[in-house]
Amino acid sequence: MFSRFFIYHPIFASVVSIVIAIVGAIALPLLPVELFPDITPPTVAVTASYPGADAQVVADTVATPIEEQVNGVENMLYMSSSSTSAGNMTLTVTFDVGTDLDMANVLVQNRVAIANPSLPEEVKREGVTTQKKSTNMTLVVALNSPNETFDGLYLSNYATININDELSRISGVSDVTIVNALDFGMRIWLDPNQLDTRNITTSDVVDALRQQNVQVAAGQIGQEPSPKDQDFQLTVTTLGRLASPEEFADIIVKTGQEGQITRIKDIGRVELGAQSYSGYSQLDGKPAALIAIYQLPGANALNVAEQSRKVLERLSKDFPKDLTYSVPYDSTEFVTASIDEVVKTLVIALVLVFIVIFVFLQDFRATLIPAVTIPVSLLGTMAVMLAMGYTINTLSLFGIVL
Known about the structure:
The structure is a single chain. With about 400 residues, the protein is an alpha+beta fold. The chain has 14 helices and 15 strands. Strands 5, 6, 13, 14 and 15 form a 5-stranded antiparallel β-sheet that branches. The chain has a 4-stranded antiparallel β-sheet with strand order 2-3-1-4. A two-stranded antiparallel ribbon has the order 7-12. Strand 13 and strand 14 form a beta hairpin. It is elongated.
């Protein structure tokens, strides 16, 4: 009965088909594109660092207090933590599918704040970080030096300073991570024999660093109220934080009763290096900086990849000599290939259906009507997918072909 209405009202059926086709054509470019559907549970990562502690100490003094408070947070499925011998702790909290990741991040951060008073002072100074952890990796960009002019430390810091922020501003990007990042740090190597001879402990060195490597507000000279003959008002500036190994080497650690002075250079050496050498990145056996780009849920992966490549191409014009970039991993290549194959399959299927209908009906005009319903149905499917929040991915494309 329902189909008879459209059979006896062809003009109305044509109008409905045209409307469906127009709505589907509008929805098609608006559909998000990604490799797989958003079926992975959202996660939030809590990271902390306890310099000098082994894995067991980190687990007992850092991981346990945080786990006790975070456990049972709203919509949580499960959580897992890992502690390393380098003093690092990572707690990954997994939530139900569909949970608002921003709200989940806030809830975890509030629980971590409750556990903060129970953490060691060294951990508090280093800071406890809570951030959203995306699993939709779109691109991996590699910075390398073909002639090995630059080492991994330089490449990692160049990526952090000059590339990371630019990529983070791209619409649809969730997170930009430097894999095994090597950040610059002032490394102080102490001689145990010299420490024992001068009766100095590592705590004395740390205290000296905290007291002398500070940014101090020294105030002003001639600030009101002042004498009437005061003509000038000057702001006093100090050296502030130290920047070079030589400046750190001159830090006074201990003074004797007879005026003896012990500096850091007397009990060790200072060099500029990486904060941690626990990990490194290579590409084809050479040092490299790997930049992982993650997309937001529902973002268009093709657009994210295209915009990322444009930004990299623009930034590469200012790269120093012997510094190049490449894209060793691009998830959109598989998606693009899948879309191309689906289009070919649909065209072949459309031709075959048209031929079969023509063979049975033996009339070109009669064949045209059912053949037109195929693109209308496909475009209508796109409109429904957009309305229901679906994305174009390998599984949905497979369903369309079927």
